[in-house]
Amino acid sequence: MKISVRHICPRFSCISALLLLALLACGDSRETRLQRFLLQGNDQVKKGNDARAMAYYRAALDLDSCFAHAWNNLGTVYYQQQNYEEALAHYNHAIDCREEYTEALLNRANTYYELRQFYSALKDLDKVSGIAPDTAVLHFSRGLVYAQMREYSKALASFQNALKKDPDNPEILINLGTVYYYESEYDSARLHLAEALQLDSTEANAYNTLALLEAQDGNHPQATEHINKALNLEPGDPYFLNNRGYILLMQGENEKALEDINESIMRDPYNAWAYRNKGIYYLKKGDAPNAIRLLTQALEMSDFIEKGHYYLGEAYLLSGDKQKACEQFRQAVRQKEVSEEIWERHCR
């Protein structure tokens, strides 16, 4: 049941039109050629031609092996391809060449976030704070990291700081609403999501989170209405399809739910929440082995899975393995997925 928390986009280094004209006026110097390769690479990225873009960036590096902008932009192409290890290596080169390169530091922090190396991400953000301490994007990035670390009070404080710097940004409001949802502060979540939709009624992620809020309250018709609005705005989005599948599961429409969940996995095989929901499907069908397999897979892919340990405990209980069930219920209590009562009911 993933809520698609909004990320900041990785940043490409670029040059201004005035700077390019000034460089061209000076003739075909080495600096001019470097900037031209950079500009041509950026143009190819906009056209969706990654291979040609990378060729231009590498041509710039043939002229200057420590041209930090080219290293950064190569990293960002790899980032957009979800090749995070290669992205990280290229951002490292950019920062080695230019230690206080804030764009590359922010991009590397984003990459550490994707690799779930959260303390490394925070270390880079601390470096950015020493260079440009008052930017919304810095606070926003910290909020994302803290949310994934389940440090919700710090995440809320970071997003609120970002909102002070950029009060008309609906993405910040959506993330605030999402964290309030995780904190079970549903009134605050609804308030911020409504504010986001007042700023931009086409924010599909706001409808997505509202759908899950209504599902949590058992208001399935309203939840269905919200998730369908999200899908109308962004047809085929794998997270929205998966969440619609979850809502259908909660209504007992298991086979329709499975269609959405399978479609979600086909579109994004790395969405751990879809495997969790497919595990719930098999749990509802009384198929303990498949439920255990899929729920275990989901938790191996990401430990940020709402009630993942609880559902895995239910699957082990169904299989007759009370010891493993109680281990999962205890972990669910530690992560505040469920109350102590759940563990006591099954394991005392």
Write a short abstract of this structure.
The chain is mostly helical and 348 residues long.
Characterization of the model:
There is one protein chain. The chain has 348 residues and is mainly α. The protein has 20 helices and no strands. The protein has helices spanning 17-25, 30-46, 50-63, 68-80, 84-97, 102-114, 118-131, 136-148, 152-165, 170-182, 186-199, 204-216, 220-233, 238-250, 254-267, 272-284, 288-301, 308-319, 322-334, 340-347. α12 packs parallel to α14 (238-250) and α14 runs antiparallel to α15. It is elongated. It starts with 16 loop residues before the first helix and ends with a helix. The model is unreliable at 1-9 and 15-27 (pLDDT under 50).
Largest β sheet strand count, sense and barrel closure: none
Structural class: mainly alpha
Mean pLDDT: 89
Cα-based radius of gyration, to the nearest Å: 23 Å
Strand content: under 5%
User: In terms of per-residue confidence, which ranges show pLDDT below 50 for 5 or more consecutive residues?
Assistant: 1-9, 15-27
- The level of helicity is over 70%
H and E order? HHHHHHHHHHHHHHHHHHHH
- Oligomer category: single chain
Number of H/I helices = 20
Task: Tally the beta strands.
Answer: 0
Shape: elongated
Ends: how far apart?
30 Å
